[in-house]
Write a structure and sequence with these properties.
This protein is mainly α. It has 2 domains: 57 residues, Orthogonal Bundle (Arc Repressor Mutant, subunit A), CATH 1.10.10.60; 121 residues, Tetracycline Repressor, domain 2 (Orthogonal Bundle). Helices cover 71% and strands 2% of the residues. It contains 9 helices and 2 strands. Strands 1-2 form a two-stranded antiparallel ribbon. It starts with a strand and ends in a 6-residue tail after the last helix. 32% of the residues are buried. GO terms for molecular function: DNA-binding transcription factor activity; transcription cis-regulatory region binding. Keywords: DNA-binding, Transcription, Transcription regulation. This is TetR/AcrR family transcriptional regulator. It comes from Actinomadura darangshiensis. InterPro entries: DNA-bd_HTH_TetR-type_CS, Homeodomain-like_sf, HTH-type_TetR-like_transc_reg, HTH_TetR.
Amino acid sequence: MTTEPTRRRLTERQADTVRRLTDAAVAEVGESGYEGLTVRNVARRAGVAPATAYTYFASKNHLITEVFWRRLSALPPVEADGALLERVTGTLREIALLVSDEPELAGACTTALLGTDPDVRELRERIGVAIRERLRAALRDHDDPKILGALELAYTGALVHAGMGYTSYARMADRLAEMAELILPDPPE
């Protein structure tokens, strides 16, 4: 059995259906944007019945949040080598750039992650924990809760800032590196 979206464990066949739906959602949002995205259109593109799509995803927010979760989950483990600033900025950059080359998807992810349905909330919590753990791994010996919290807030703020159109998602990665320099302790001399 494969652990797949929020609500349950899936057989290989069901996991394939979910993969087709998430792939179709990326293509659909790329063509029609978040506003034009519907679970029905995604189902059509994936070659499944709308009822089947709704079996796995309660809403378009749930579907897009699942796309982000899958990309985040697919990242390799945080490298333990290098200086503190390099590890942390590399980790922040990697997370920030997950969807940066797909502007419509990036905007959709920002909007979807703010959704209020229970499946989105559960995935948002998983995403938050995964990001926290990646940052904690990058911080290693400097795992101060205040520093970790500041980095999490910097990431979240940057995501919303980009989602509001104040900066690009690609530029967000550079801004996060600047924030990390301000937040992290100076290296010993």
